[in-house]
Amino acid sequence: MEASFDTEESFDDPSCLSPQSPGSTSPARRHNKEKEIKETKTTINGVTFPLPMTMPEQELLKPSEWSYCDYFWADRKDPQGGACIPGFEVLLQKQLKGKQMQKEMAEFIRERIKIEEEYAKNLSKLSQSPLAAQEEGTLGDAWAQLKKSLADEAEVHLKFSSKLQCEVEKPLLTFRGDNFKKDMKKYDHHIADLRKQLLTRYAAVEKARKALADRQKDLEVKTQQLEIKLSNKTEEDIKKARRKSTQAGDDLMRCVDLYNQNQSKWFEEMVTTSLELERLEVERVEMIQQHLRQYTTLRHETDMFNQSTLEPVDQLLQSVDPAKDRELWVQEHKTGEFRPVDLDI
């Protein structure tokens, strides 16, 4: 973790900007001031954050919503010791994982469709079986209806599989096509470029900070040498060193201003883009919810239609009457109503 201080604040003191100032500010005073400011802010991977113990708690941009725009500013440490992962990258990975989950759900529904189609095919085949086709009477009627119900049930499952394909599988497959990953890459490159610019600006700030410290030190040394007459340096040399120190201070302020401009732009783009990713995730979840609810609706309808195919079977089974069957069979197959009698001599 690399610590820095608010350099704009460090130049609020006129002694840091006026031509006479760098030499008149004692090292002890400057060190104490820098130490005091360093304790309020820290810069991590080029991004400057306040230290929580030095300021009131920041108000969330979208309180009570657990919004993306409030919780992904810092980088995530790699547990394996690799490079840190930017918070925005975590959001992008969530989007890509969601796309993969959507694809796997569609594959799951496709497998269910195959099972339904195979089941329907086997039911239809079984309904045409000649087994027990010779059964007669009311029981024969019930048995024939039971076989017919298999054909009806097969049709129900075929319709179910067809609706699953049109109303569940296809929407899951087509929602956010190939362009989605390209769009995510555009977001990634845009935010990554801003982050790289921010790192470059921060490096420039650090370089300018070091240059200012070197110029101030040089000015102090020359001033002290002149005061104790250990050098032949003239007042003109002191003025030149003072001008360089002041210029270095101006350069640092300019670098800090450019850095802050970059960080502000990155901040705005992070908020805007993370809210867009948040909207996309809500849209994805609601879409899947809608089509999975359609799946359950179709499944309930299938059960209902299957039940309707069994109702005639239930009715005929309730009508099965062994006595009636016997009557019908006897009437059709009887060979004679007269009973044998004793033979007379």
Describe this structure in a few short sentences.
By secondary structure, this protein is mainly alpha-helical. The chain has helices at residues 7-10, 21-24, 27-38, 68-71, 87-127, 137-174, 179-227, 235-318, 322-333; strands at residues 41-44, 47-50. Helix content is 72%, strand content 2%.
Overall strand count: 2
Q: Please give the count of helices.
A: 9
% residues in beta strands: under 5%
- Taking pLDDT < 50 over at least 5 consecutive residues as the criterion, the unreliable ranges are 1-32
Q: What's the N-to-C terminus distance?
A: 131 Å
- Mean pLDDT value: 86
Alpha-beta content class: mainly alpha
Order of helices and strands: HHHEEHHHHHH
The percentage helix is: over 70%
The global form is rod-shaped
Biggest sheet details: 2 strands, antiparallel
State the strand order across the main sheet.
1-2
Radius of gyration: 43 Å
